[in-house]
Design a protein that fits this description.
Blueprint lengths: L8 E4 H11 L4 E4 L6 H7 L6 E4 L3 H15 L3 E5 L3 H15 L4 E7 L15 H5 L5 E4 L6 H13 L5 E7 H5 L1 E4 L18 H13 L3 E5 L1 H5 L3 H11 L2 E4 L14 E4 L6 H9 L2 E5 L5 H4 L11 E6 L13 E4 L2 H19 L6 H19 L6 H12 L5 E4 L3 H9 L8 E2 L10 H11 L5 E6 H7 L3 H7 L4 E6 L4 H10 L15 H8 L2 E5 L5 H10 L4 E6 L28
Parallel strand pairs: 2-3, 2-4, 4-5, 5-7, 6-7, 9-10, 9-12, 10-11, 12-13, 13-14, 15-16, 15-17, 17-18, 18-20, 19-20
Antiparallel strand pairs: 1-8
Helix pairs in contact: 1-2, 1-6, 3-4, 3-17, 8-13, 10-13, 11-14, 15-16
Length: about 575
């Protein structure tokens, strides 16, 4: 028997961190240095295997790592120093955690002996981030670093993916130790369940076979598990309608005849009708948030037997009571359902015909496509989004800010592939889309990346135009410029007697001049028919580009579920003749 002898190395904590990152396959990190992290940044100075992108705000570093993760299916990494650096990460980390995006955050900390003394730039990052991360570590011994780094990446990227933070005191990074860095120890007590229970799978198949009006609800877990193909195959086997959540947009090509697009508060009316009428609902990788179900949950799939597949057992029966819970990975569970269904169909000679339901689903899909492809009397914002959809290539990655621009994009931009629509769902973070576009472009440098922005959102993170120019990261930002916090203004118009309290942004800045001051290409567009030439100019400029799209000040995203309403109470559905 051969005995393997491992050689210990004499390394500083900073060197151990760097080796650990490389061992986990990290190629790029987004961060901003500070005093507590100087030992680590001193090592990054000569490191050629890891690209460091200097952001201009730590929140943007977290969003960029998040966008990188969502576009690439890899774990994103961000770095911030102690105190205000770490607290600036918080919004970005909470955003990623709410949307189950795998991100590892490294934060600096004061020396271990000074922890708790209110030292300069000290914050209890460990306790501060505990509620908004999947797990976090405060490392107090340098020799623990190899184990902690490996566990952090393992936890972030397995089970229900999420955020893991490692807090690194300055002395832990500086100390040198003799150590074996080849350590792969799984976290004790952490055993994510991925394989579904076969008896629950068989129960689900029984219900699906007997259904006459089945609907598949595809959430973000479908995309996270790379289970889009399984959704399409199962939908075609059952002739089931497919509705997506905001996070599941792209789980099935939205031009597929069985796809009814996004459901929920600002979803397609046909999608919500299908959810309300189905007799069986197969929900995959969704947590049934209030933005999907509305507040009157009794109107959500009221007559349906609900099958819920989710990798997180805590989501089962949390918001909606279900009939058949299946805990496990979405791809594994759907594959098992397909296999069992195939065997069932071989024995029985096929499913019972659902001719009337199939006809209705395809008619509802035709209505969705007609709404997307026809301008008619649409709001200018909707016409802009529709034209953008006609111009861009199918593999273009779209990121969005939050608000009206986000919902116009979710409603009217037809997404054909998974990981091509990146948006802040759970937290609804204004300012997310632009730095997420930076991360997505770094992850996928050969693809076009376009941020659909609102003027209010873009003003929150626009300083990172400097990051794009300095690092040659070519994204296109389309600002929907109505000089309002548009979604809040819409609610004020519809439900608060047009009292536009503190939602008007004024006339500043001139976005074209602002972008040009950073060295970007910039152009103002006032008509949808001018967009094609503007995009041509933007892509051919070879620079980060900002297109300032002038849209209607009172444009509204319709249809919508009013506050406190349910799926059957959507307003603004006059064009949807179902």
């Amino acid at each position: 028997m051969r005995i393997r002898f491992r050689m210990k190395k004499n390394l500083s904590g900073a060197e151990i961190v760097l080796e650990g990152l490389k061992g986990e396959g990290v190629e790029v990190v987004f961060g901003i240095p500070g005093g507590a992290l100087l030992d680590l940044y001193n090592m990054l100075y000569d490191e050629e295997g890891i690209r460091h992108i200097l952001m201009r705000h730590e929140q943007c570093a977290a969003h960029a790592a998040d966008g990188y993760a969502r576009a690439s299916a890899k774990t994103g990494v961000c770095i911030a120093t102690s105190g205000p650096g770490a607290t600036n990460l918080v919004t970005g980390l909470a955003t990623a955690q709410m949307d189950s995006s795998p991100v590892v955050a490294l934060t600096g900390q004061v020396p271990t002996a000074a922890i708790g003394s209110d030292a300069f730039q000290e914050t209890s990052t460990f306790t501060l981030t505990m509620p908004i991360t999947k797990h976090n570590f405060l490392v107090k011994r340098t020799e623990d670093l190899p184990k902690v780094i490996h566990q952090a990446f393992y936890i972030a990227s397995t089970g229900r993916k999420g955020v893991v933070l490692i807090d690194l005191p300055k002395d832990v990074l500086a100390e040198r130790v003799d150590i074996d860095t080849d350590v792969h120890v799984k976290p004790p007590g952490y055993n994510p369940k991925t394989e579904p229970n076969i008896m629950q799978i068989k129960k689900a198949v029984d219900v699906l076979v007997a259904s006459s009006e089945p609907v598949i609800l595809a959430g973000g877990g479908v995309i996270s598990a790379n289970a889009s193909e399984e959704v399409r195959v199962l939908a075609e086997m059952l002739q089931a309608a497919v509705v997506t959540t905001l996070m599941g947009k792209g789980a099935i090509p939205e031009d597929h005849p069985l796809c009814l697009g996004m459901g929920g508060m600002h979803g397609h009316y046909p999608a919500n009708k299908a959810l309300s009428e189905c007799d069986v609902l197969l929900a995959v990788g969704t947590r049934f948030s209030d933005r999907l179900t509305g507040w009157k949950t009794e109107q959500f799939a009221p007559d349906a037997k609900i099958i819920h597949i989710d990798i997180d057992a805590a989501e089962i029966n949390k918001n909606i009571q279900v009939h058949i819970p299946i805990v496990g990975d979405a791809k594994a569970a759907l594959s098992a359902i397909i296999r069992n269904l195939e065997r069932r169909l071989e024995k029985s000679g096929g499913t019972s015909p659902r001719n009337e339901w199939e006809r209705r689903v395809r008619e509802m899909h035709r209505i969705c496509e007609s709404c997307i492809n026809t301008d008619g009397d649409d709001m200018l914002s909707a016409r802009m989004i529709k034209e953008i959809g006609r111009i861009l290539k199918d593999d273009t990655i779209i990121t969005t800010e939050v608000g009206q621009c986000q919902m116009f994009a979710a409603h009217f931009y037809m997404t054909k592939k998974p990981r091509n629509f990146i948006s802040s769902g759970g937290l609804g973070t204004m300012g997310f889309g632009f730095p997420a576009a930076i991360g997505a472009k770094v992850a996928c440098p050969d693809r076009d990346v376009v941020d659909i922005a609102g003027d209010g959102s873009f003003l929150m993170t626009c300083q990172d135009l400097a990051t794009c120019i300095e690092n040659d990261i070519q994204v296109v930002v389309c600002i929907f410029d109505n000089r309002y916090l548009g979604m809040v203004r819409q609610w004020q118009e519809l439900f608060f007697e047009r009292k536009y309290a503190h939602t008007h942004l004024g006339v500043t800045p001139d976005f074209v001049k602002l972008a040009e001051s950073f060295g970007c290409y910039a152009e103002r567009v006032e008509r949808p028919e001018d967009l094609r030439e503007a995009f041509k100019n933007a892509f051919e400029s070879g620079k980060t580009a900002v297109l300032d799209l002038i849209v209607g000040k009172e444009d509204k995203v319709l249809p919508m579920i009013p506050p406190g309403g349910g799926l059957t109470e959507m307003i603004g559905v006059e064009r949807c003749n179902i």
